[in-house]
Amino acid sequence: MTRLQLLPLVPAIVALDIATKAWARAALYPGEAIELLPFFDLTLSFNRGVAFGFLNAAGPVFVLLVTAAISAGFGVWFWREPRALTRLALALVLGGALGNFVDRLWRGAVTDFLDVHVAGLHWPAFNLADAAITCGALLLVVDMVRTRKEAPSA
Predict the structure, then answer these.
(1) What are the pLDDT digits (tens) for 15-32?
(2) In the prediction, which pLDDT does 48 show?
(3) Overall domain count for the chain
(4) Among residues 41, 115, 130, 143, which one is catalytic?
């Protein structure tokens, strides 16, 4: 897919992320767990830092600047990237990063509400933007491995 074909994926992820977070804030109470599956709940929480609470103690302006710089870097990489699978991965990462950036800008924290757990162990709560970032990162790894295998050995 071309850059222009993939570009609408970015605002689509942002819009869907914003909509699901708005729904979560309206429908859920912080700390309340609504079980959907034995290993999956809806639980509203807020993250003032970045991934897994990293930089939680940093000031909000610093976190916004760091996430804006990272998003800009991914945007430049997306536009310059020649490989289609890598562009798809970057569109997912960029859409997720911008979704969380908008939430952080508007609310001062990122809204999380998806809670996966097994045998009493909980993965940190996340949202659709985080899922897009994770899927994009996994695609980047797959693409790197695939590209490495295709490259002639030295």
Answers:
(1) 999 999 999 999 999 989
(2) 78
(3) 1
(4) 130
